[in-house]
Amino acid sequence: MIAGVRLIIIGRQGAGKGTQCQRMSRHYVVPHISTGDMLRAAVREGTTLGREAKAVIEAGSLVGDEIMIELVRGRLDQDDARTRGYILDGFPRTVIQAEALDVMTERHPIHAVIDLDVPRDLVIDRISARRTCRDCGTNYQARGAERHPWICDQCGGDVVQRDDDTREAVTRRLDLYESQTAPLLEYYASRDRLTVVDGRGTPDQVFHSLTAAIESARGSQ
Ligand code: AP5
Ligand code: MG
User: Fold this and answer.
1) What was the pLDDT predicted at 167?
2) Residues 128, 210: Cα–Cα separation, whole Å
């Protein structure tokens, strides 16, 4: 195990970013910084940010770059991220966010940028079965035989379907991925910083591919 890692995970909605980042955050002992989780927490708490972001998230659109950049800047400035590192899940999501992140991380650059690659038809299947703990964000797959209310094994919170997992919002999110986020792959590849990991296996297989890719990216620096 190597502590002190700084990572970015990019991938389609439903690729398994959140699922894998939770596990990697325990493995590398670094915070999992999910901008989606941060926004959902703000919505739940009814903060100004949450009130502004609620409708945008539910429609499957993107929150403005400036708001997101300031949110992440503040989070990366906290002690745990500064001293131990972090795994960024869901940020950057546009080239403007990536450029801002390059400036923020100039003194302590990112060790690896991973594209967790899962084709569109498979992520649609995964998202339609996804249920998520409202409190800690742990993901589950619904198989139709669950007891209700569904209680999270990890924290005892309510396990529910996310408000943005409707068919319309998922289609919009996936379309926005192609137009706004996929260009990031070229952004990082052209700077020789991108590693593509196949996200189609079981969660265990994908986890092993991810850690192998991260060790190899760190080793080559
Ligand atoms: P966010 O929360 O980041 O959502 P997302 O990008 O749509 O990604 P998902 O969380 O849907 O997918 P995931 O890859 O994490 O998959 P998961 O692990 O859950 O963002 C939400 C919204 O916030 C955005 O739409 C936007 O409005 C806003 N936002 C956030 N960041 C922003 C930014 N930077 N700029 C602007 N706006 C921003 O896995 C999916 C399912 O599959 C789960 O049920 C899981 O159990 C299952 N699964 C996982 N791995 C496997 C496997 N290997 N095999 C089988 N099943 C699996
Ligand atoms: Mg997620």
Assistant:
1) 87
2) 24
The topology under which CATH files domain 5-118+166-219 is Rossmann fold (3.40.50)
* 111, 199, 212, 221 from 67: Cα distances, Å: 25, 30, 34, 32
Environment class of 77 (CB within 10 Å of its CB; exposed 0-12, middle 13-18, buried 19+): exposed
pLDDT single digits (tens) 79-120: 999 999 999 999 999 999 999 999 999 999 999 999 999 999
Q: For residue 16, which atom of ligand 1 is closest to its CA?
A: 18
Helix residue ranges, H only, the chain: 17-28, 35-45, 48-59, 65-76, 79-84, 95-104, 120-129, 167-176, 182-189, 203-219
Domain ranges of the chain: 5-118+166-219, 119-165
Which residue's CA lies nearest to atom 48 of ligand 1?
Answer: 16
Report how many helices (DSSP H) and strands (DSSP E) the chain contains, helices first.
Answer: 10, 8
Considering every ligand atom, which ligand is closest to the CA of 10? 1
- Tell me what pLDDT residue 1 has: 44
